[in-house]
Design a protein that fits this description.
globular, nine-stranded mixed sheet, Rossmann fold, alpha/beta, 213 residues
Length: 213
């Protein structure tokens, strides 16, 4: 099976987590507003958020272990927020890796980055990379999810886990996905992320599954 590359821009990914067994996790850099601040420590996840996102993605690949490479780019450590200039640095780097998908569970309601984000999204489309990002934040439209050619996601608790739905909304197609983690075998929800972060990851997993032969 052809190996697909997925870049996860988040808090890092713990590649030793049992939910990721059988998949390859590559430790990418940690970024700050002006660029790389540490070369290869993306496999450290102090928050657990990025690991939860990665675990949600690979749940769509139960019969395809080893078919993907997860590249962890870290933009925050202890809180799921950062200067958006940091995200731009990570996005630029992510595109150089020519991944199949980029999972970005972050966005900005500011318009000042729109031109640069539009250019990055266009570059991704040209090389065949799909960017998955939330369509809104705090009830407001946010970028890059609000841009054309981005797989925009809304967390909808009425959607069944593992069953994202693509629907027309506001003149475009938007993904609606469950914002809740799937319970483990004992019924407990242990993943350390909720809301749009997991909804975005679910859509990334769905798109990834459909891209594999």
């Amino acid at each position: 099976m052809t190996r697909a590359r997925v870049v996860v821009i988040d808090s890092g990914i713990d590649g030793h987590h049992q939910a990721l067994r059988g998949h390859t996790v590559v430790a990418g850099p940690t970024f700050g507003p002006t660029g790389i601040v540490a070369a290869k420590d993306g496999d450290h996840d102090l928050l657990g958020h990025g690991t939860a996102v990665a675990a949600t993605i690979v749940r769509f690949l139960a019969d395809a272990a080893g078919a993907i490479e997860l590249v962890a780019l870290r933009v925050f450590e202890r809180e799921p927020t950062c200067n958006f200039a940091t995200v731009l640095q990570a996005l630029r780097y992510a595109l150089t890796l020519q991944p199949t998908l980029i999972n970005l569970s972050l966005g900005t309601t500011s318009l000042r980055h729109r031109d640069e984000l539009t250019a990055l999204v266009a570059a991704g489309k040209q090389q065949g990379t799909r960017l998955v990002a939330p369509a809104s934040y705090g009830g407001l439209c946010c970028d890059p999810g609000n841009l054309a050619n981005v797989e925009a996601v809304v967390g909808d608790p009425n959607v069944l886990p593992m069953c994202p739905e693509l629907r027309p909304y506001g003149g475009r197609l938007i993904w609606f996905a469950s914002p809740m983690p799937r319970p483990d075998a004992d019924g407990v929800r242990r993943l350390l992320a909720r809301g749009d972060s997991l909804a975005v990851a679910a859509v990334t997993g769905r798109l990834l599954r459909s891209s594999l032969p």
